[in-house]
Known about the structure:
The protein has helices spanning 27-42, 68-74, 107-113, 141-148, 151-160, 166-171, 184-196, 200-213, 218-233, 236-247; strands spanning 3-8, 11-16, 48-53, 58-60, 96-100, 103-105, 117-121, 125-127, 164-165, 177-179. By secondary structure, the protein is an alpha/beta fold. A hairpin with a 2-residue loop joins strand 1 and strand 2 (11-16). The chain is globular and about 60 Å long. The model has no long low-confidence stretch (mean pLDDT 93).
Amino acid sequence: MSLNFEINGKVAVFTLNRPEALNAIDMDLLKELSKALCExxxxxxxxxxxxxxxGQRAFSVGADVNTLLPEMKKVDGNSCxxxxxxxxxxxxxxxxxxxxxxxxLGGGLELxxxxxxxxxxxxxxxGLPEVNLGIIPGWGGTQRLMRLIPQxxxxxxxxxxxPIDAAEAHRIGLVNKVVPPEKLMDEAMEMAxxxxxxxxxxxxxxxxxxxxxxxxxxxxxxxxxxxxxEMLMSSNDFNEGLTALKEKRKPNFEGR
Length: 256
């Protein structure tokens, strides 16, 4: 299997499992990732996902230049021929954490960019080298990067293709935290635990408002926020949150 899909309580862990190829993404891996993400989306017992790479050298070095890129060239890069993932084609409002254990290049970085939170190993480095192949990122890199970091820095990474190390990625806000390699998955699970504590209906609504609002005008975004706020006001979880606050106890959210 090119992807390991494991469940740890309410957390799903997706491990890109082609360490001999630095976890390069071929069509089999892309299909397996798509299938696992769709299962994660449908399973109401799973609330948070963690994506990482097997081995210590790479999170993923991107699309497999020997197989996937030639396949994409045959169909003129038609994204309709590719299975949906969080990078493109799959709307997913459950939070995703990227645990970047090593090199995250090209499509590997784009996969991490399509997550909501990013924790990097000290040995990680991140870049979008596509211009050196005569193309540009095709899984969201040109769009998501400049929404996450200053435009000038995004332009530097996109125009030169030069990678940055984990410390620089943290300095510019591209990753949330940098940790020693041996602590990476512990930190990712700890982050997942923090995300699991609040009401999951509210967490998903917050992600939906963020993602959909990014492509809207401020007025339209505010209307979206208002509609989601009003939906949550009528939920059982909101009533439980208020009651727990008054009774000075921890709330017991049920996702309703």
